[in-house]
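Handout, section 3.2

Students often ask what a structure token actually looks like in practice. Rather than define it abstractly, here is a full record for Ion transport domain-containing protein. The first block is the sequence as you would receive it.
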Amino acid sequence: APYFWTLAFPGGRVDAYDEALRMLRILRLLKMEKYIPSITLVDDVVRNNFHKLRLAGWVTVVFWIVFSALLCACESAHRVVTGDNGIAQSARFGDVLVSLPYTLILLSGDYPLVDFTPSGQAVCLCMCVFA
């Protein structure tokens, strides 16, 4: 209910403490673990497969950084302004750290950016195949 209250009355006291109220609701759900066995089931899955999940996390981070560096190398000289917001690809992929959020979006399978150089298109194809 606090979420809908903040939508109805923005800028109020509930809106100021919306995140804290959400955290309290999540903590309340975790206290209900003895009544809901599904939380215990998720905990058991994480405990039994911790090493596999950790390996998958490392592979994800490595792919993210490698593809970000590759897109930075391919698109840093692409100065043509494309898209609706008037940002050139060289501004998005000019630095590896700047290109990390854009690469994460591309790795998720969403392609809001489509105006790549041919080498950038090859990197995006590799992202589709390997990631």
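Discussion prompt for tutorial groups: The CA atoms of residues 33 and 39 lie 6 Å apart. How would you have guessed this from the sequence alone?
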